[in-house]
């Protein structure tokens, strides 16, 4: 049998404050459904989805986590090996927006990301279906933050009305695939380096 | 055979009957339903496919019919002259061959008519099925005199199963006569059936064979297909594919091979799962496994099937789930037959032979009882409504059966310690008035202190959290259903809660915040609160019950999660102690952190069980009957039940997590409770045994090889009924929220 049957698995983590709509976004993307009856997420779970990105077959594993801060210390086990991280806030909730950066920082530390500057994040402002007067975070403000955090891709979505969800996750998938492929490459490369050269030169000959 | 020109009105012709066939409705003998298993030709012109296989309870039978049935049971097939005695445990070669070779069909020798059997009945246990609708039989021949042989009928048109039919040969005049005849003819050198015991089911199958084609499935022991279609043959009888006459089994299935596989892939996978006992890691390994029948391998090599394999690539999970369904089914029926001794076997194989056996008394006590009814509950109390039996007796009863819904409202207040056990009704009435007043005080604390509400950051933060989670608590239940105008309301955070019951939950949580200022609100608490309010529908009583419940559960919610970690570690040790093989496997898969139990332990399986089951599990746990941490044995029981599936099919952290997370809705509460109880008893016995050994060795705790036998403090605490209390640290100005 072919050895190549194992599909590429892209691991994607969704982070953000409690109640910003992480589970809803995941469900909308994977199952095309929205429910008023989601419960607060406890622990962590993932849903797989098969995708074709430019003729390449991949399985995207979307990991949904609990939003409450104290449960995050458990998430560490799941952060490892992620290929992309989605940071979600609620456009009607200022605090959830302010916390985007801490979610990113926390992730970089916990997931032990070697090259933080190039790790793909995608920022999502969710719940744009609300009335305009309830919206507290403007697109401009959000874009400024994303630019500031290293030109992170930014999407405004409504998981409830399926607005922009597909588009956001398309970028998530592409960036994750790129990350996964670059990791494969650098892993091979690192092995080669370790065999032939001592640790001293590590990193100095990356180009 | 003489034939009447017409059948008597409303009657059908009896082709076969066996008396003293039973349905075992419960594990209690007195609930057994005796009846006749019959094959009836309903109308004179009915074809063989229209024949009805029916079970008719004795209670449903008229005196006339009874006479006909009893006579037919004894003499209807004239057993003396026909060679039907081959055992029904048919050789693994094709049954159809035997069909062709068989001496003569088993036609009735006497003409008897009975009322045409009903296919289903609401009022009794009668059921029937036409042969055309009969998909397969699951035959469990009588293997010893200790229990009865049984047959299960599986209909074609639904997954609904009919109850197992047990052949009580020792009471059945027909079978006894046949056994006598058989022993007279006993030929010790006969090639078939020599070692088999003759039983009532044999005759049923040999007669059924006269009216339809029966095929053994070598993939599943005891499974016999009735008039199998080509597709069934491919799925269940790989030998058919080997047959050169059927070179291309797909040829006449239709043009679209894809469609064929879409329809049948589940069955193909199912067959694989059945084969999974041959230790396979993946579809690929099935291919290199010698024990897998060649035809299955051939199917898997087809390109169309490879696609399916890919589709199911993380598919071990699916296989495992299927294997679980299979296992559950198999166990259910086994349980019916041999009852609790099965668990004994199970545990002794699970834990090794050198283990002290559970005593029959202990095993029998593991049987689950009916929930406590209102009448039974009231009998626990005297005329002043003061408890007149011991608390232990009540707890024993609740632990082993749970409560009927109507009893919960009162009983939970005792179980949660709101009402002391030794109070009279009058005293409880006074107590509840005091509790109401006290609650009002806490409530007013925050209700009146508007300044506090507006200005304290902590309060505001808590309010947002509580609002958010209350809004997403059990909304599928009627009492928490969204109000009409709430449905199209937007999802922003300041959207008002409209449902009045949810508003009560919110007020209770605000008030709890006043009472336990250190802990405050943490996600998961709404899950703990909602069933309490559902039962009491009384704000103050719910509040005090919740407060007491949180006393036990606070360790789950402390900020550094140390209470949860300790429980997971204890469970981890318990797995090592009782399920070492599984533990080694989990270790290999990076899963020995048992993370998948986090949610289950945090809110006591609220998310995995149905609402009703959750309430039952909780009241059982509240008894602290064996251990204040019985929940860990319940978790262990899940692992124990699924261990072979996990070990055979799941090899990665994410696979195991997914499998465990998806068990929700698929946990058999009663079955797991029995296992949990037996595992606890086993554990206790092991600890006692080790303690005794350690004592006899003297100072050192040594086993045979001179190593220490460690029983950690955490494991030992599992034997205690005393609740473990862990409190949140005191909140200071620096304590972060969340």
From TrEMBL, chain A:
KW Nucleotide-binding (keyword) present: yes
Single GO biological process annotation from the record: regulation of vacuole fusion, non-autophagic
Pfam entry (one): Ras
Top-level division of the source organism's lineage: Eukaryota
GO cellular component annotations of the record: fungal-type vacuole membrane; late endosome
UniProt keyword terms in alphabetical order: GTP-binding, Lipoprotein, Methylation, Nucleotide-binding, Prenylation
One GO MF term: GTPase activity
Family: Belongs to the small GTPase superfamily. Rab family.
Protein name according to UniProt: Ras-related protein Rab7
From TrEMBL, chain B:
Keyword Acetylation: no
Keyword annotations from UniProtKB, A to Z: GTPase activation
Superkingdom of origin: Eukaryota
Ranges of residues in domain Rab-GAP TBC: 402-625
Keyword Ribosomal protein: no
GO cellular component: cytoplasm
InterPro entries: Rab-GAP-TBC_dom (IPR000195), Rab-GAP_TBC_sf (IPR035969)
GO-annotated molecular function: GTPase activator activity
This protein's name: GTPase-activating protein GYP7
Species per Swiss-Prot/TrEMBL record: [Candida] arabinofermentans NRRL YB-2248
């Amino acid at each position: 049998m072919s050895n190549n049957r194992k599909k590429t698995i892209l691991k994607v983590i969704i982070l953000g404050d409690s109640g910003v709509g992480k589970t809803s976004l995941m469900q909308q993307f994977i199952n095309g459904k929205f429910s008023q009856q989601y419960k607060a997420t406890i622990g962590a779970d993932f849903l797989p989805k098969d995708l074709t990105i430019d003729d390449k077959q991949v399985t995207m594993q979307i990991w949904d986590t609990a939003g409450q801060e104290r449960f995050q210390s458990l998430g560490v086990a799941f952060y490892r090996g992620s290929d992309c991280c989605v940071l979600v806030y609620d456009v009607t909730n200022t605090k959830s927006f302010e916390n985007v950066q801490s979610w990113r920082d926390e992730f970089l530390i916990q997931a032990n990301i070697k090259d933080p500057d190039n790790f793909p994040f995608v920022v999502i402002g969710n719940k744009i279906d609300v009335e305009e007067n309830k919206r507290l975070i403007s697109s401009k403000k959000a874009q400024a933050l994303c630019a500031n955090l290293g030109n992170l891709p930014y999407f405004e979505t409504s998981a409830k009305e399926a607005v922009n969800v597909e588009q956001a996750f398309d970028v998530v998938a592409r960036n994750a695939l790129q990350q996964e492929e670059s990791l494969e490459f650098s892993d091979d490369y690192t092995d080669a380096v370790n065999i032939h050269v001592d640790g001293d030169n590590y990193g100095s000959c990356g180009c | 055979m003489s034939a009447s020109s017409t059948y008597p009105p409303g009657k059908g012709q009896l082709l076969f009957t066996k008396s003293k066939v039973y349905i075992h409705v419960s594990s209690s003998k007195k609930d057994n339903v005796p009846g006749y298993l019959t094959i009836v030709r309903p109308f004179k012109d009915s074809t063989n496919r229209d024949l009805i296989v029916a079970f008719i309870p004795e209670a449903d039978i008229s005196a006339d019919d009874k006479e006909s049935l009893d006579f037919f049971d004894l003499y209807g097939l004239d057993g003396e002259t026909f060679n039907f005695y081959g055992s029904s445990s048919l050789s693994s070669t094709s049954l159809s061959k035997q069909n062709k070779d068989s001496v003569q069909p088993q036609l009735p020798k006497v003409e008897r008519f009975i009322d045409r059997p009903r296919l289903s009945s609401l009022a009794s246990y009668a059921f029937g099925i036409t042969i055309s609708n009969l998909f397969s039989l699951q035959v469990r021949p009588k293997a010893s005199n200790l229990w009865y042989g049984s047959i299960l009928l599986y209909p074609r048109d639904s997954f609904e199963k009919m109850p197992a039919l047990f052949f009580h040969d020792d009471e059945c005049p027909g079978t006894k006569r046949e056994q006598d005849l058989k022993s007279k003819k006993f030929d010790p050198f006969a090639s078939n059936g020599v070692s088999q015991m003759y039983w009532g089911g044999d005759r049923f199958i040999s007669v059924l064979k006269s009216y339809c084609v029966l095929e053994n499935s070598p993939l599943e022991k005891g499974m016999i297909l009735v008039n199998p279609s080509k597709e069934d043959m491919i799925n269940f009888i790989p030998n058919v594919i080997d047959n050169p006459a059927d070179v291309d089994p797909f040829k006449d299935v239709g043009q679209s091979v894809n469609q064929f596989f879409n329809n049948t892939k589940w069955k193909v996978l199912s067959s694989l799962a059945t084969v999974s006992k041959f230790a396979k890691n993946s579809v690929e390994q099935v291919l290199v496994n010698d024990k897998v029948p060649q035809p299955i391998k051939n199917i898997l090599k087809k390109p169309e099937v490879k696609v399916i394999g890919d589709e199911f690539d993380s598919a071990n999970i699916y296989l495992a789930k299927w294997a679980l369904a299979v296992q559950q089914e198999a166990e259910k029926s086994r349980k019916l037959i041999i009852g609790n001794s099965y668990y004994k076997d199970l545990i002794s194989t699970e834990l090794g032979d050198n283990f002290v056996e559970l005593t029959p008394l202990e095993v029998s006590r593991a049987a689950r009882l009916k929930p406590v009814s209102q009448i039974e509950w009231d009998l626990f109390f005297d005329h002043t409504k003061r408890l007149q039996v011991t608390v232990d007796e009540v707890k024993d009863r609740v632990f082993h059966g749970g409560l009927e819904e109507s009893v919960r409202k009162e009983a939970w207040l005792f179980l949660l310690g709101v009402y002391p056990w030794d109070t009279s009704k009058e005293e409880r009435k006074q107590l509840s008035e005091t509790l109401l007043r006290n609650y009002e005080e806490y409530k007013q604390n925050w209700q009146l202190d508007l300044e506090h509400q507006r200005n304290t950051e902590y309060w505001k933060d808590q309010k947002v959290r509580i609002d958010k989670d209350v809004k997403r608590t059990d909304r599928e239940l009627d009492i928490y259903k969204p109000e009409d105008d709430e449905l199209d309301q937007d999802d922003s955070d300041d959207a008002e809660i409209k449902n009045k019951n949810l508003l009560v939950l919110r007020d209770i949580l605000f008030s709890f915040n006043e009472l336990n200022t250190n802990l405050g609100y943490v996600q998961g608490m709404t899950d703990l609160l909602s069933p309490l309010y559902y039962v009491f529908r009384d704000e103050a009583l719910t509040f005090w019950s919740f407060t007491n419940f949180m006393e036990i559960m606070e360790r789950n919610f402390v900020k550094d999660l140390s209470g949860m970690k300790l429980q997971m570690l204890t469970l981890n040790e318990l797995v090592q102690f009782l399920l070492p093989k599984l533990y080694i496997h989990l270790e290999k898969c990076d899963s020995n952190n048992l993370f998948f139990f986090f949610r289950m332990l945090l809110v006591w399986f609220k998310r995995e069980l149905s609402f009703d089951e959750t309430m039952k599990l909780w009241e059982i746990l509240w008894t602290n009957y064996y251990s204040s941490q019985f929940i860990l044995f319940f978790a262990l029981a899940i692992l124990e039940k699924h261990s072979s599936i996990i070990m055979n099919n799941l090899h990665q952290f994410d696979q195991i997590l997914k499998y465990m997370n998806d068990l929700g809705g698929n946990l058999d509460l009663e079955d797991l409770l029995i296992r949990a109880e037996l595992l606890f008893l086993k554990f206790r016995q092991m600890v006692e045994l080790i303690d005794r050994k350690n004592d006899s060795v003297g100072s050192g705790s040594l086993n045979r090889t001179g190593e220490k036998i460690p029983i950690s403090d955490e494991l030992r605490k599992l034997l205690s009924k005393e609740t473990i209390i862990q409190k949140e640290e005191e909140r200071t100005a620096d304590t972060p929220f969340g």
